[in-house]
Design brief:
The chain is an all-alpha fold. Helix content is 69%, strand content 0%. The protein has one domain (14-38, 49-98). It has 3 helices and no strands. Helix 1 (14-37) packs antiparallel against helix 3.
């Protein structure tokens, strides 16, 4: 398009991805914490670590799973926000060129 400036997405898009990353990471951490506290009678495989929750979280390397979930959610939110911004911007330029 003629005269279309080469502008990057506004600086307000990346915080959405960071917020999603933090929310999913903390959410998965709290879910694992709940699993260690909740009573699990009548389960075929009961999860009762002999060490404290922190030791089992670090030794079992569950933070990698939390990080993986959080990274994928953060990227998905960032990509969706970027897509929506780009589409709206392109639509506005098409309307302006039509005039």
């Amino acid at each position: 398009m003629k005269g279309k400036p080469t502008e990057k997405a506004p600086h307000l898009i990346w915080p959405f991805g960071v917020l999603a990353f933090v929310a999913v990471f903390v959410g998965h951490f709290l879910y694992l914490r709940y699993l260690t506290i909740a009573p699990q009678k009548d389960w075929a495989d009961s999860f009762n670590p002999s060490a404290s929750f922190w030791q089992s979280y670090i030794i079992g390397q569950d933070y990698f799973v939390s990080f993986s979930y959080a990274l994928s959610a953060g990227f998905a939110v960032w990509a969706a926000a970027r897509f929506i911004y780009s589409r709206r911007r392109a639509a506005a330029w098409r309307r302006q060129d039509a005039l």
